[in-house]
Write the structure tokens for this entry.
Amino acid sequence: MKPLYDKIGGTYDTTRKADPEITRRLREHLQLADKSKVLDVACGTGNYTIAMEKTGLSMSASDLSQEMINKAELKTSNVEWKVADVSNLPYPSGVFDGVTCTLSIHHFENLLTPFKEVYRVLSKGRFVIFTSTPEQMNNYWLNEYFPIALKESAEQMPALSVVNDQLKEAGFDIVGAETFIIQPNLQDFFLYSGKYDPRMYLDEHVRAGISTFANLASEKEISQGCEKLKQDIESGHIENVMRNYSSHLGDYAYVVAEKK
Ligand SMILES: C[S@@+](CC[C@H](N)C(=O)[O-])C[C@H]1O[C@@H](n2cnc3c(N)ncnc32)[C@H](O)[C@@H]1O
């Protein structure tokens, strides 16, 4: 994992930014007063960490990749940044009022060890995860163009039931899950951010910031998929494809757990 994100880290912020609506809901799910101490694990270049700091929280953040943390440190010193594996967090027990983790749990080798670590560093409070489920991903129209990479990507993603089970085993109470549906004005160009703007995937800079393309898809699959997508955009056939993949499951999900 480290080499992948050290590789993506260099250009990650070209297309990856904190989306205001995702940030607003993260903050809401934390249910915390201003100045509360919150940790963002697997923070990447800190886009969501910094957005949450700007909402009045006192933020700490860590990531496995030195390259990602180097980028984060250049943006602000208002956050305490650390290079750390989520399975072995360098913080004393019981020091945080909340913990967040966005778009990262699928990279963890297992969920139980990180969840136990998050539970340990929390005093009491919520752990808010933003992720997607395999069922949601199976309904992304991207499957039509990049089927192998999407299948691998969905297989990497833990099912909601598994996430909940592992949270419970780590000691958490489950508060619930809320689905998130991509809006056309989304600011953070992650995997399904181009749901309404298929042209986005033809841009290599956008693909470079998305691990499914940067890591899982072969060059052959990308070039063939992009060619077919380009033709379907030009002919208008993409509208039918999008309709066929419409789903009631939502595109992403917040999973909220609590240490009482
Ligand atoms: C898709 S990025 C998401 C970054 C950030 N949370 C965001 O939403 O922009 C996934 C991040 O998970 C980090 N990561 C993967 N495995 C990790 C681990 N075991 N411990 C800490 N960070 C990890 C990677 O280095 C990478 O920065």
